[in-house]
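Exercise 3.2. Students should predict the tertiary structure of the chain below and write it as structure tokens, then compare their answer with the key that follows.

Predict this chain's 3D structure.
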Amino acid sequence: MAQFGDDLLPLGRAYHWEHVRAAELYLVQPMSDGSIRSWTWQQTMDEARRIAAFLRARGWEPGARIATLARNSAWWIIAELGAWMAGMVTVPLYPSLRAESIHALLQYADVRACFLGALDDHEAMQHGLPAGVLRIAMPNAAPEVLHGCDHRWDEILTECAPISDSPIRGADELATIIYTASSNGQPMGVMHRFSLFPHIGSNIASLVDMDCNERFISYLPLAHIAERGAIEATSLHIGCTVYFTAGQNNLLAALKRARPTVFFSVPRLYLHLRHSVLEKVPQPKLNRLLRIPILSSYVKRKILRQLGLAHVRLAASGGAALPCDVLAWYRSVGLGLVEGYGLTETGITHAPRPADFRMGYVGPALPGVEVRIGRDDEIQMRSAMNMIGYFRNEETTRECFTADGFFRTGDKGEIAPDGQLKIVGRIKEQFKTSNGKYVSPVPIEKRFAIHPALEATCVMGAGHAHPFAISVLSAEARKQCESGGLNGELGHALEKLLTHINAELDPHERLSFLALVDGPWDIASGLITPTLKLKRDALEKRYASQVDGWIAMKKSVLWARGQ
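Answer key:
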């Protein structure tokens, strides 16, 4: 892996663009009144330097932890740059966290100050911030947040002159602590060096030879490694423009405004966008149109324009497996969609160039990444992007690394002769039925994801004779069930789907039933993560009391109304 000098570390890149692209656009932010505000590189750095001056004046020790609890915004990135200039370590938190989680994480990291912006739950913030943590309100914070804050962003900009020096943080210095999920409820703060950022940025930029003319859109949580790497680190590396949204409900409008040339997302969003197209143009009709040479190119362009993706040169999915049928569908309408791979602890490690994409694989290891298959088919990786360790948890850090420095991912995989990696599933997600057989749920769940009536599916069955599936219905499917139950077209279609899936599974994997529930499975309910992954333990606990009753019904597809 290349060694990066100070000029290629994140602050070095920011200073570089501050001078050579001073008047060029960097950040574009929609405001609450419907207007759009933009920052050039010079304006971005002026605000960051004022934030740095404010933090320096607090007199805190070097390396003091500064948190950000906010949805993605221009101020999010400016706050991080300012904290780094001031010699601090950043601790980003998901804006959807509950009060007790916020309190535990901030207290665990001994956070000195917290930047507060637009949040999913203002009340959780009010009760979650520990006493003594300095509260700094971003301009997009809600009125109730502003009322309880110690300082306001605009007041800081007015009162503090920008720092005149341009401090550089060393490549091996601690830059950020990124919290990730743990199986035992203990805070797992992943510590990363400043060198992580240019490694990710250069690798991502090399996939399609990116330059400063790219347009990114940031809407997945910046508290997650994927968005930090793909958007923040890469934009700093190449000096391009980043657009933000007014929230995920406004994503389509933001896409059309930004016209991104690079787009990263998660399977759930790609499934939603595909469904929105097929609601207007059913698949059989779309197939006919795509087979007509004179119409095919026009139809593809129109679909991508309606999705705001007509200018995309690289589209990637990550965070969870995307069904092959969905990948194939996007490629059939002209979007060169690929899958990538990485973990909070390892950074982004795998992604193919669009021309090298292979269905079912996440590409070869990116430059500087060593990958091997260990015991139990576990993927193990070693690179300069590997974390320093877990914050204040040396024992778990030791357990997660092999003696020769490879990180144990917990994912099962296969490496093709040409180096392309296939993710098979999670070692710990396997469960054992009462017959002593192991079942890997993820490959089965992928088969359900293509049906538009099912928003998400979780396969369970630990300790039962046979596995089974629980799916949350889409809003339209719920209406159909409420009006006619499962006796009509929807019920027959889902029974056919279950039969088809079972026919492709080994006998011990075949599902005894599919239970359809109302949900919701969302962040607020605690059933999915902020990056839209299923929380299996939480789902199993929620439906545990219902399972025996469902089994006793002896139906292949059943509607668990109100669940």
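Discussion points: The CA atoms of residues 403 and 474 lie 47 Å apart. The chain is about 35% helix and 20% strand.
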